[in-house]
């Protein structure tokens, strides 16, 4: 009789027999998978943070070609024209749901090391708060219009000196008191400081706003609004859905981190694949007699090939699972870096998704196949008589 | 000598395994060296900065301009030798991926402050005469195949519109660390365009940063305090720091990424350590009987330790040497492929020293456990293993 496959149990027992070797080889693979998964989680975290910043029915208006809020200038006249355009949502009092905001960068010292980094300071209004329902106060109260009061996002309150509740920040020739701390549901606003728009304009001596954010009356009214803006020669601005705007802001940083990380993972995996290959070659060499016996019992070449390939894949799967488990611990870590597209600090988290977990395990299995194939091939090609003689 | 020959024979008894281990070592050490060089390249701007220059910017942040009339007041500060100014232009050449730095500078004074940008006299005069002209670095020109006389078009992000510049000169760096990938244009041209757009009330007569040279570098801290004191409580307060601190503040913004790269560069060493330890463990296991024989012949346990440790170190040393040798061409190829991202990219002696150290540590650690175990084997048990 001819058996198709070698039992799985036999494969797994072999791994257990050489515990030290299995552990060392799997450790190498686990480290590679850890780097691979962590990098993908970082890219995912940045994107998730910035996408969560935009609301689906909000639009963002910037000066043409500005790309980022800090480069943009929207004059008071332009803002007034925008506000009167049809197709925008209105609140209970019939006012358009529009907020005109000055946005500036302020360099503040970090709590951890005193190094200055750029924090986004946004002047906003009651309408501005209404347009961002994800923002909730968690401590203190909202700033009062017309005063030098500010509220800070959670990441700023924790990360920057003077950003906590009751502390004061000095910038633009004034003392600003932090009267509240808000939680923006892990969006980019967590890394911002908010105050009254008109006060900010005066303090920073700005003639124009940086951006205008408006809510559409219906989500499918975007094309009509865009065409209307394009048709008005006074409006040298461009309009984008807010989601799209923030997604574009995350692109460069997330892509940079992914490319860097993936090329590293591939280079590192060479080391781990070599490790698997060494282990599997040794396994095959030590079990020549056994292989001869299996073949003599009637197992086909393909069964032997699959058995050794399976052993290598089981080994890599162990490594992959350990690496993934280590990477999933990274979800508790908050990190913050400067987004080079906006030149401002952005706090985010490592985010593990199902698709990242699957990709990481597939990557591990690919390493196992690459490392195990040649040794398994060699095992399958051994002549029965010669190998039995060696036993 | 006998020992070394025995070690060499032992090391290459299993050619395939040793070869694979060497490949792993070379890849790991090369990756380690490359990552460290990337981190070094990030700091290149800091190292190239002069201690005799200060940078004055708005106290709020770099994105806020300072009024032009500050120039005369700063010039009058005691200890100041010369002053110039520059604006970040932030133009896009064809697409965003072609990033390089463009500065709108006050040309006559700027090049006087930066002697490391070497430009011959005819080109300098040509640039000074042509308001539409620009000067580009040697590497930048080489990257895009620009010649003197070519016209470069940029799409402005901070200054709207499409801007065309005629290349009037190509500068060279005086030192190896000088950034040769910058582009300089006339500040006056940018200021005029802003004035036409926004009228007199705009930010036409504003500059991004002032560059100040001090007479005596030791006096730099005092001079920067004097400058900042001059504008305290004014409409635009200033922050003056040495050029080095200014450059460092950019680097520290991406500190998280740098830390991650550094952490990852040690992970690759750990990976190869696991691979190498595996190799040595398997080697030791296969030679159990041999070591028992050696001990039966009267060799002390220390000799077995020496054999294993020596073999491991020998493999690590060969791998280390190859890894270091490979790093240089790989770094060159990498620098060529990323283009303008890193103006300066060179493998430092410290990196090479760390690579060698890492190789030796890997060799020593990998042999530690098997060597300890083999030195303690029971002779009778070990000899029985032969059968």
Task: Please describe what this structure looks like.
The complex is a heterodimer of chains A (391) and B (387). The relative contact order of chain A is 0.21. Chain A folds into two domains: 8-51 and 249-390, no CATH class; 56-241, no CATH class. Chain A is an alpha+beta fold and 391 residues long. Helix content of chain A is 51%, strand content 20%. Chain B has 387 residues and is an alpha+beta fold. Chain B folds into two domains: 2-44 and 255-384, no CATH class; 60-236, no CATH class. Chain B is built from 15 helices and 13 strands. In chain B, strand 8 and strand 9 (162-173) form a beta hairpin. In chain B, helix 11 (255-286) packs parallel to helix 14 (349-375). The mean pLDDT of chain B is 90. The interface between A and B is large, with 58 and 51 residues.
Cα shape of chain B: elongated
- The number of distinct β-strands of chain B equals 13
Number of domains of chain A: 2
Q: Beta-strand level of the residues of chain A, as a percent range?
A: 15-25%
Main beta-sheet strand count, sense and barrel state of chain A: 7 strands, mixed
Q: In total, how many domains does the architecture of chain B comprise?
A: 2
Rg of chain A from C-alpha positions? 30 Å
| Estimated helix fraction of chain B | 55-70%
Intertermini distance of chain A: 23 Å
SSE run of chain B: HHHEEHEEEHEHEHEEEHEEHEHHHHHH
Largest sheet descriptor of chain B: 11 strands, mixed
Mean pLDDT of chain A: 91
Secondary structure elements and pairings:
The complex is a heterodimer of chains A (391) and B (387).
Chain A: H1 8-17, H2 19-53, E1 58-63, H3 76-83, E2 98-101, E3 103-109, E4 116-124, H4 126-130, E5 136-140, E6 149-153, H5 154-159, E7 168-171, E8 174-183, E9 192-196, H6 197-204, E10 211-215, H7 222-231, E11 237-241, H8 242-286, H9 288-297, H10 301-329, E12 334-339, E13 344-349, H11 354-381, H12 384-390
Parallel strand pairs in A: 4-9, 6-8
Antiparallel strand pairs in A: 1-10, 1-11, 2-10, 3-4, 5-8, 6-9, 7-8, 12-13
Helix pairs in contact in A: 1-10, 2-8, 2-10, 2-11, 8-11, 9-12, 10-11
Chain B: H1 2-11, H2 15-42, H3 44-47, E1 53-58, E2 66-67, H4 70-75, E3 80-88, E4 91-92, E5 101-105, H5 107-113, E6 117-118, H6 121-129, E7 133-137, H7 138-144, E8 151-156, E9 162-173, E10 182-186, H8 187-198, E11 206-207, E12 209-214, H9 220-230, E13 238-242, H10 243-253, H11 255-286, H12 288-296, H13 301-338, H14 349-375, H15 379-384
Parallel strand pairs in B: 5-10, 7-9
Antiparallel strand pairs in B: 1-12, 1-13, 2-11, 3-5, 3-12, 4-8, 6-9, 7-10, 8-9
